[in-house]
């Protein structure tokens, strides 16, 4: 858990630094000529690659559509959490998924389960919101959090059943 927390903290730090560099570069863009921008972009790309390499296998575990279907058929299926907007959720979601918008996961994490070792599968439309929600849930003490590989977009494209419109 300690290594995972350190890895996630490092990733967050690297992403913040990269965002600050990009922000400063864009602000100063009008005042700088193009050759002077190269060092900023090289640092940004380097930090992005380092962040990606520091993904921590334990912290970025995901399940495929088929694996999720198998898990859903087990005696103790995982809690499936849809972290998209209400509009997206109403338009269609994985059967049995609970809706918990990604921005409210930190406040409403107890709605998932009071038992912290409950298996949880988080998904959104494309990935970033699910990734963020998974980090928050891990920090709240959930030890078995995974994301859905390909997210809802791939679930739909694969022809799997979903509830909603």
Describe the structure in brief:
This protein is an alpha/beta fold.
The overall average pLDDT, rounded, is 78
User: Cα-atom Rg, whole angstroms?
Assistant: 18 Å
Query: N-to-C SSE series?
Result: HHEHEHEHEHEH
Major β-sheet strand ordering:
1-5-4-2-3
Residue windows where pLDDT falls under 50 for at least 5 positions: 1-6, 53-58
How would the global form be characterised?
globular
Annotation field: number of helices? 7
| Through-space gap between termini | 40 Å
Q: Roughly what fraction of the amino acids lie in strands?
A: 5-15%
Largest sheet: 5 strands, parallel
Structural class comes to alpha/beta
Descriptive notes:
The longest helix has 27 residues. Helix content is 51%, strand content 10%. It has a five-stranded parallel beta sheet. Helix 1 packs antiparallel against helix 2. The protein is globular and about 60 Å long. The chain contains seven helices and five strands, in the order ααβαβαβαβαβα. The chain is α/β, with parallel strands linked by helices and 165 residues long.
Topology:
Blueprint: H1 2-28, H2 34-53, E1 62-63, H3 65-72, E2 79-82, H4 86-91, E3 98-99, H5 105-108, E4 120-123, H6 128-139, E5 145-148, H7 151-157
Parallel strand pairs: 1-5, 2-3, 2-4, 4-5
Output the keywords:
165 residues, 5-stranded parallel sheet, 7 helices, globular, disordered N terminus
